[in-house]
Design brief:
Layout: H1 10-21, H2 37-45, H3 49-60, E1 64-66, H4 67-70, H5 81-93, E2 106-108, E3 117-119, H6 122-148, E4 151-152, H7 154-163, H8 170-183, E5 186-188, E6 196-198
Antiparallel strand pairs: 1-3, 2-3, 4-6, 5-6
């Protein structure tokens, strides 16, 4: 029998491991430690601005960002890795991903606290780029919706994002509207079509 449990809470994960310990000889435990778009978005949104900048610049620079590009006023980058690691640990505690999830970005340097840059593995660049872009689009469109109100569909979302300097297609616009609806700002008015209105409007 194969049992697959996706994104268990830390408490459930610990209890399950304890239960299965008595049958370890017959049990093979596999955890999904893949960075999915949803997990990447959760990680990105949980980072403070400075840590977001490190991750964003690494993605934009094909996986590596130098310390010189990140350094402000000649200051050391010592301590900048803390929020990146804290977000990973916080995600485990919240049940967003399993224990042992690899960090998506690592400081690079000769050691002794000296950092020459940060690197994100090649296989994670695309998924984190998508997460960053999605969050940027969501924030921009949510601000316009909150300001203008009214009825929203993918066509209007595309126009609004274009005015804000973002070019998206209909598929992306629908995805952004769904994410905004999940925050409670808008509600769907049609059971089949992607048409929404601001929640506090009749």
């Amino acid at each position: 029998m194969k049992l697959i449990i996706e994104d268990p809470t830390p408490e459930f994960h610990e209890q399950l491991l304890s239960l299965l310990a008595d049958h370890a000889a017959y049990v093979e435990i596999q955890t999904d430690a893949t960075w999915t778009p949803d997990r990447a978005s959760l990680y990105w949104n949980s980072l403070p601005p400075r840590a977001q900048r490190i991750l964003r610049e690494a993605v934009l620079h094909n996986g590596f960002v130098s310390a010189d590009l990140l350094r402000e006023d000649g200051k050391s980058l010592r301590g900048h890795s803390g929020p990146l690691n804290s977000a990973l640990e916080r995600g485990f505690r919240k049940g967003w991903w399993p224990d042992g999830m690899r960090s998506p970005i690592q400081p690079q340097g000769p050691g002794f606290g000296q950092v020459v840059g940060y690197r994100i593995p090649d296989d994670l660049i695309e998924v984190f780029e998508e997460a960053i872009v999605d969050t940027t689009h969501q924030s921009a469109l949510a601000e316009v919706i909150d300001s203008e109100g009214g009825t929203w569909d993918p066509a209007r979302a595309i126009q609004a994002l274009r005015r804000e300097g973002h070019i998206v297609d209909a598929k992306r616009a629908r995805a952004v509207l769904r994410r905004i609806a999940a925050t409670g700002l808008i509600v769907k008015t049609d059971g089949t079509a992607a048409i929404y209105r601001r929640t506090n409007e009749q």
